[in-house]
Specification:
Blueprint lengths: L9 E3 L2 E3 L5 H22 L11 H12 L9 H4 L2 H16 L1 H11 L6 H11 L7 H31 L5 H12 L18 H16 L1 H11 L8 H25 L9 H13 L16 H13 L12 H15 L6 E2 L2 E2 L2 H28 L10 H15 L14 H33 L13
Antiparallel strand pairs: 1-2, 3-4
Length: 466
Amino acid sequence: MSGIGSVASRRASGRREGIDLSAPQLLVGSFAALILTGTAGFLVLPGLWHGERASPIDALFMATSAVCVTGLAVLDVSTRLTFFGQLWLLLLVQLGGLGILTFAALAARAIGQRASLQVEEAVAGPASLVPSRSPMALVRAIVVITLVVEACGAAVLWALWRDDLGLAGAVWPAVFHAVSAFCNAGFSLFRDNLVAYAGDAPVLLTVAGLIVVGGIGFPVLEDVRLRLAGRRRRLFVHTRLVLATTAVLVVGSSLLYLALEWHRALAAFDAPTRLAHALFLAITPRTAGFNAVDYDRLANPSVLLTIALMWIGGAPASTAGGVKVTTAALLFLVFVSKLRGRRDVVAGNRTLPDGTIQRAIGLAAGAVALLVGAVFVLLWTEVDAAGAQVDRGLLIRLLFEAQSALGTVGLSMNQTTQLSPVGRLVIVGLMFAGRVGPLALIEAMIIRASRRSGGVRLAREDVLVG
């Protein structure tokens, strides 16, 4: 196999020749290859570290967190990484945010080759919602939108920080945080993340805006653009579902954070800043990872709300993670349909396919099972010394950490640096599964199941439920 673009499905004399990889397998392999490349770079490239290099496990952790746009860090980015180390980290974030297959398809196009069927299939998912553009045209649009939004965000952040950091000193932090925010990564060059700007509403709102745009999904952005340009009579149901669910989550959780933290974490700010801070608290858990408060000091209901938001995440075909807002919305619509006695699930005056509903249910169930299993392993590996008093708070902190990794969020209750080597590897696995799982792992399961069944439908037999 000579590169991603050379992989193709070929049949000759009724038999399969060469290597036959499905699009999900290609996507998983591409992300794994990028993670290994990032890890090798942290281990062998000169001039990336202040002092001694990171250990192989820590290098793997940082590379995985960057490629999977999570933001969890076992090392202080601001003090341990040099400028070139930070640049390497940001490059991994950018590549991971856009998806390595996007760049592979562009490279194949640039050298005059047609992208393989697998590559086109992998990038055609979002394009199926935008039929006026070919997959390759959508890839170009993705890159253009990304660079334009990140440039605008960097310009705004530079203007906000130039008085504090200087005209030249504000350039790199502005670029780094704009890319990190749009890619929903949550890495920061400041030692306390954005805690120093907790009272700066313009900074918080700018970062939150970049997070929302990055987490809304490219199909939604393209659909809205075509609708505003008059080239489409109505928005797709997918777009309306994403926008409506996102609005409900942001507004509803903002009000809850205001009620829960008005006299606690937000007590030191004036009313307008409290509102901006509540919006920031509502937006960042949905896979961004920036924090302007110490999450270990939030009220218990706020912690539970944050875990729920991390589980939901952002929109499909975006830089965000989680089970996605459409999955959460479909689960709610299934519940409403059952209460009303309806057989079909309806959204936007359209009946949704049963296959999509089953996929959403399976994805949600799989995410919960994976989370519970990972937390169990972490509780085992991170247990205190024998005979020590049981720390019930450790359960909450590890649950928070595991969901943050699985949702590719990056928030932490000050637990990341305390993890054992085995615990760090568990988090690495969760970050990888969270990044490629919704896009590839479930699809790979569906492909294998369809191949095994051979189109044969088995006899039915019912079971009791509830």
